[in-house]
Specification:
The structure is a single chain. Strands 1-7-8-6-5-2-3-4 form an 8-stranded mixed beta sheet, with helices on both faces. Helix 1 packs parallel to helix 7. The protein is an alpha/beta fold. The longest helix is centred in the N-terminal third of the chain and has 14 residues. It has 8 helices and 8 strands, in the order αβαββαββαβααβααβ. The chain has one domain: Vaccinia Virus protein VP39 (Rossmann fold, 3-Layer(aba) Sandwich), CATH 3.40.50. About 35% of the residues are buried.
Amino acid sequence: MDTERDVEDLIAEAAAAPVDGWGFDWLAGRATEERPPWGYAGLVADRMAHADAALDVDTGGGEVHAEVPRPPRLLTATEAWPPNVEVARRTLRRVGATVVAVTQAAPLPFRDAAFDLVVSRHPVDTDWAETARVLRPGGTFLSQQIGAGTMRELSEAMLGPLPPPAQRHPAQAVAAARAAGLNVVDLRRATQRAVFHDIGAVVWFLRKVIWTVPGFTVDRYRPQLLALHHRITTEGPFLAHAHRFLIEATRP
């Protein structure tokens, strides 16, 4: 089979593969990404074991919380992307969680001071005022967030040179948390290597992590995909870097 047929097969396979939920098992053997050193899932499990009522914002497919060994009395999750809502409901049924479908950027549909713990992994955006509103006095917000310029190398491979990132800097999150009346008690940063071994992995990743290249479609970016495929086959796996930060804040 010639190289052109190979690339078309890889692209077609990745374009047809499901991207529901927030798991990345499809990339096994095709791409790898290092994980932050703080172990978010373990931190969440520890906080959940001591919580009475907890909220997970932007739960995705519910993968992180499905494995919590000691869920709180009340565990609620929100999700705004419709394909993920039913996935999360199936996944979180085992821990007795309720999944609420929401509209992105809308106020949280919960009463004031409803939760003593709010968590969020890779939220699309954090509404700090709403987070503070639904937290009980003494409650905790714990979040692993996407940092500024994450996967920039991959974005630029599709879009060309980009200006310096203006959003998602940890200092902005700290300022917003404080403006909402929260006390920031922990802030950690990490940069991890992400390695793509074939163009199919790139296509699937861009379909799933939609903010990397907004509006991505195979047809729109086919020339760039073919160029990146040639780069991978001649120079080796494509390397990008993911930036993450952990922020923990409490309501006085």
